[in-house]
Structure formats: C-alpha cells, structure tokens
Design goal:
488 residues, alpha+beta, Ribosomal Protein S5, domain 2, eight-stranded mixed beta sheet, four-stranded antiparallel beta sheet, 15 helices, 14 strands, globular
Length: 488
C-alpha cells in the first residue's frame, strides 16, 4: 500500500513550535522536547517537515529474524525525530540536535552523494555508527532505490533522539526511517512501507556493517501504540497484531551496559547459525536424491528458512547430525562458505554450530506459542495463559545466554531480580532483547501499582549492586508512517 504524507499543517514560527508539536502523536514530554530541538536547528524561512520514529521493544523472536522466525515487536515511547527543510545551494546539511551525540552540521554536495543514475556514492561516513551516518545513509539508499527524487537544490536535515544507543533499542533503523519519511514529505512523495524498511536495512548492513534484518525498521515505520506487531521475516511479511488491554503492560528496561564485543559476538553466532542451516540443507538434498522423486512420504517441507523447521523434525532428523562444534577451516574444507552474504567464516575460529542452530528453531516455536498465550489471556482474562507467556520469555532469555552466548552478567542480574521481586505479584516474565550482549530487557506484567513498585524495587537493587543506572522505557508511540510527517 502507498502511505501518503500528512503535510497540511501550515508553517509556524519558532515561537509557536512548542504549541504545535504538543498536538503531534505522542507530542508531550520527551517527544515534544526533541521535536522543538530539531526544528529550532533549522531556519524559519520555508516549510519544515518533521517525522518521529519510535524505538522498538523486541518481545519475542529477536535476532532469529534472519532465519525466518516470527518476530513480535512493540514500539517504545522513546523515539528519533528528524526535521527536513529545502535548500537552494545544492548541499545536503546534516546536524544533530542538543542532548544527542554529535556536534556541528556536516555538509555534502548533492552531486557527490548521487551519480546521474541515482546510485549511492561511497562516503567517508560509511561504517561510522552515529546519527549523522544513519540519516545520510537513509537518504542515499532511498535515492538509490528511487523512492525519492534527487533533491537538486539540497536539503537541511536535523536529527534528535531520546533513544540510547543500546542493544535492542532500534535507534539506528529509526533514524534512517524518520529521515526517509521526512524527506519524502519535503519532496512530495508517497512511500511503500516494506520498501522503506528494505532501505533502512541496507543502511545497517552496508553503512554500519551490522548483519541485521528489517524488524527494527518495520516497527519504526508501521508499529501501532501498545500493539504487538507480528512480522514474519525472510522474506518480510507483515502478519497480524495484538492490541494490549489497559491492564497489561510490556515495558523495556535499559540495563545501561552493552558489551564492547557485542557486534563480534553477534556476527560469530550468525555465522555458526548459517553453518547449521547449510548442513541441514545438504542433508535434506541428499535424502531427496536417495529417496527419488516418487518417494515423498518421508520428506519434510523445507523452504530454506531454518526457524520454520518444526521442533519435532529438527530433534528427530537433524540435531544429532549437526556437530556440537567445528573449526572454521574444517568446515570450509568440507563444505565451503555458508551462502550468507553478510558473514564470512574465520578459518581460525571455533563455531558451536548445534546450539546456535537450535536456538532459532526453538525461538520461532516460542514466538508462535507466545501469540497463542497472549491471545487466550486477552480473550478470556486467563491469568494462567499470562504465566505461560512469561515462562516462554524466561526460556528465550536462557537460550540467548546458554545456547548463543549473547547474554551478559548485567541482564542476567536484572532479569533475576525482576523475577525474584515479582514472584508474589503479577510480573510474568522478563528477557534480554534484540541482539543481546546487554542492552534492553523486556518485561510482561499487569498494570497495577504493586507490579510497578516491584519493577522499581528490582531496578533500585540492580543499581545498588552494579553501579549502573537502569532506564525504564514507558509508553508507546505510532510508527513514522502511521503518524505521518508534519509540516511546521
């Protein structure tokens, strides 16, 4: 579907900005402050177009997105804001608003950003993980994909964020998403959500060197407030959604720590996972040749997506045939590369293939069961179903740490404190999120004073034990395409 940009609000002066943005979706508090900050960095001599993209809370599925898992996301109240204004000097100027990382404006000629065919030109910004790079990458990749016309006169772009640069917050994808949506409004273009999500993924893959999927971007674009968005990944297909009732909460807590080798760990796990997928593909292919085309009764349904293997098929037919660990050189000598374009096998590396592979099979199954439990709980006020949903979150957290080595001491402590403090209240489950190695913990609980006091007590004890101040994400705002870009 095409999503039209909302650009009907008349241009206003700086003095009226605060009043105007208060009427935007989620426009009070931190959102209002961020919008005011970014708009004031631009001049008031022509229209300014503003888009707000929320961070995402990975509830279930997480990094199993790249093997075809069902991923369940909800938007956060914290967000990224991008304001865009047309220029006449043929330059792209990108600045970062106060209270965010970055300094003064950076400029690049439109002619340097694009060749005549609209494809991206290599930039010194590539692989520098900051707000400026994400914004520039979003614009460049949208031009490359021909989602936007070339802005021959140039654009001024200002970025602000209330999101931390934490594992699992979705900040980088949100910057790219908000940039594309705001630029599309300024250039009078409608957008296709999944096309924009693919652009945001390329920013993370090619500009930042992060081998991630589209889940962050889809949530930032089309997520609805307080609604669990179902996304079937690889290929990307939007599923249903579950609106949370007022008495049920999903909260995010940033533990304040992301491990310094998080990116390396994540890439290593992804490589091991695709090694397992390659082995399963070879086993299936060998069995089909051996059985012949007329003997299909014992053949499994295989679409190439690891997560979508049933748990039964995986355990009965593949688990014991996948090595627990193998050296990269040995795998390369016998089987070659995995076929995953975003990772490479290190010949000197040791890969724990079986455990990394089976996380994805089990996580997809857990995501499907979580949807069933949550739906049952909402339909029938079934507390037992909420307890079961919480247990699935707990199992996912264990799998992150034990099967994939993507946990952290800090998130383990925070999750354990939440469980202990919440044992006698309606706090049902907690888990590490996103790409792991610290970052954000998701919590499922009832919306009561007692449950919220439990969370506060767990956070206070965590701070006392670690010296790190955790940050609670509350609220949920609409995606950038749901809210639409606003003209100020």
């Amino acid at each position: 579907m095409k999503v039209e940009q909302k650009t009907t609000v008349p241009r206003t002066s700086h003095a009226a900005v605060s009043t105007r943005v208060a009427a935007m979706p989620g426009g009070d508090g931190a959102v209002s402050k961020t919008v005011v900050d970014v708009v004031k960095r631009l001049g008031d001599d022509s229209a300014r177009f503003v888009a707000v993209a929320p961070g995402r809370l990975d509830v279930m599925g997480g990094f199993a997105e790249y093997t075809g898992a069902l991923v369940l996301n909800m938007t956060l109240g914290d967000h990224v804001c991008v304001a865009v204004q047309a220029r006449r000097d043929g330059k792209i100027s990108i600045s970062v608003a106060p209270h965010s990382d970055g300094g003064g404006a950076e400029e690049i000629l439109v002619s340097h950003l694009c060749e005549s065919n609209g494809r991206k030109v290599d930039s010194e910004h590539s692989r520098r993980p900051d707000l400026t790079t994400c914004a520039l990458g979003g614009l460049a990749e949208a031009l490359r994909a021909e989602l936007l016309p070339t802005p021959t006169g140039g654009l001024s772009i200002c970025v602000g964020s209330s999101l931390p640069d934490a594992s699992g917050s979705g900040r980088n994808a949100a910057v790219a998403a908000a940039t594309v949506v705001a630029c599309a409004a300024a250039l009078d273009r409608a957008l296709e959500p999944l096309a924009v999500a693919a652009v945001c993924q390329r920013v993370e893959n090619d500009w930042l060197g992060a081998p991630v999927g589209v889940a962050d971007a889809v949530c930032a674009l089309v997520g609805e407030p307080n609604t669990l968005l179902e996304l079937r990944c690889e290929p990307c297909t939007l599923g249903g959604s579950i609106r949370l009732p007022d008495d049920l909460l999903l909260l995010g807590i940033d533990c304040g720590v992301t491990l310094p080798d998080a990116a390396k760990r994540y890439a290593h796990v992804r490589t091991a996972t695709f090694m397992g997928r390659a082995l399963i593909d070879r086993i299936i292919g060998h069995e089909r040749v051996k059985q012949g085309p007329n003997q299909v009764s014992n053949q499994i349904s295989w679409d190439g997506y690891l997560s979508r293997l049933s748990v039964t098929d995986y355990v009965e037919r593949f688990r014991d045939r996948i090595p627990t660990k193998i050296k990269g050189k040995d795998f390369l000598d016998r089987f070659g590369e995995t076929g995953d374009p975003l990772t490479r096998i290190d010949p000197a590396g040791l890969y724990k293939v079986r455990s990394r592979t089976e996380h994805h099979v089990y996580e997809h199954a857990r995501s499907r069961q979580f949807v069933e439990c949550l739906s049952r709980a909402i339909r029938g006020a079934d507390r037992k179903a909420l307890v079961e949903a919480g247990e699935l979150m707990n199992a996912s957290h264990w799998s992150y740490g034990q099967r994939c080595a993507l946990g952290s001491i800090e998130t383990d402590l925070l999750v354990n404190l939440i469980r202990r403090h919440g044992a006698k209240t309606d706090v049902f489950g907690a888990k590490i999120t996103g790409r792991g190695c610290g970052g954000v913990v998701a919590v499922l609980l009832e919306s009561t004073d007692q449950s919220l006091s439990t969370i506060e007590a767990a956070m206070a004890e965590y701070a006392s034990q670690t010296g790190h101040t955790p940050r609670l994400f509350r609220g949920s705002t609409p995606g950038a395409l749901v809210a639409g870009a606003q003209r100020l």
